[in-house]
Design brief:
By secondary structure, the protein is an alpha+beta fold. The protein is built from 8 helices and 12 strands. Strands 1, 2, 3, 4, 5, 6, 7, 8, 9, 10, 11 and 12 form a 12-stranded mixed sheet that branches.
Length: 273
């Protein structure tokens, strides 16, 4: 994949109803690498991968033009991406249509992902116990965010966190008695803004971050991709973000292991993890 292929990739995702803007494709390409399937000079399929240190990777933006689906194009693209990742744990989020392909390539289902989106509502802040607080985050907090993200995601993604934080519309740190225990970002993505990643030690901290960041975008389209049971679907619906879709979390090789003190409650994107 070259920079000149991005417009074709974005056009294919738009045709499938995916929300990715040209800017979203460009950011993904800057952080990773990809393969394209070409027929008579026309891009008919794309797939991308992102390496996070020597032992981890994620796959995403795996798209095949409808006219070329069912002809093995997706399998060839993903197989090409997997070359050189034999020693890595490789994570992706699969649509129901793609799950069978990934299973045949050695991926196993380890969980689910919930996509919530809608017009965010003004909500009161979530009360935190004594000693806990939220505060705005700045550029000096980016290294701490990267450490927390690595603990929660189980893979080092400092370049990703730096890129997302630099372009964020808002960022918040969760602190306990002056020590950073979590963070969250609100950033431009797709049809509006996305809340994520969100890292916290428990559900209460995650809810405080999500309510704060979604509230900053009240009245506007907001999306969040939740990788576990919390924040709960009913609670997010109360923020104006109903559940609209699901995906399967799949891994080939070792499963990323999170530290006990940090959990990833909301993803950066389904592609990046």
């Amino acid at each position: 994949m070259h920079a000149g292929d991005l417009a074709a990739g974005q056009a294919m995702t738009a045709a499938l109803g995916w929300p990715h803007r040209a800017a979203d494709w460009e950011q993904a390409f800057r952080l990773g690498e990809g393969r394209v399937a070409v027929h008579r000079g026309e891009v008919v399929g794309t797939a991308m991968r992102w390496r996070w240190g020597p032992r981890h990777a994620t796959l995403g933006l795996i798209v095949v033009s409808p006219a070329w689906q069912g002809r093995g194009v997706g399998r060839r693209l993903v197989s090409a991406l997997l070359e050189g990742l034999e020693a890595c744990g490789v994570l992706l989020h699969a649509t129901p249509e793609g799950r069978g392909l990934y299973e045949r390539l050695g991926f196993v289902h380890i969980g689910g992902l919930r996509q919530h989106q809608g017009t965010a509502r003004h909500t009161p802040p979530v009360a935190l116990p004594a000693g806990w607080r939220l505060r705005p985050a700045g550029s000096a907090d980016t290294p701490t965010m990267a450490v927390l993200d690595a603990q929660a995601r189980g893979m080092p993604r400092a370049a990703l966190i730096a890129a997302l934080a630099a372009g964020a519309a808002a960022a918040a740190m969760l602190e306990h008695e002056g020590r950073a225990r979590g963070f969250g970002l609100l950033r431009r993505f797709g049809r509006g803004h996305s809340v994520g990643p969100v890292v916290a030690g428990d559900a209460a901290g995650a809810r405080a971050l999500v309510a704060h960041l979604a509230g900053l975008n009240a009245g506007h389209f907001t999306r969040i991709d939740v990788g576990g049971p919390e924040p709960a679907a009913e609670w997010l619906a109360g923020l104006g973000l109903p559940r609209v879709d699901d995906a399967a979390v799949m891994v080939r090789g070792p499963v990323p292991v999170a530290a006990d003190e940090a959990r990833l409650f909301a993803l950066a994107t389904q592609s990046l993890g």
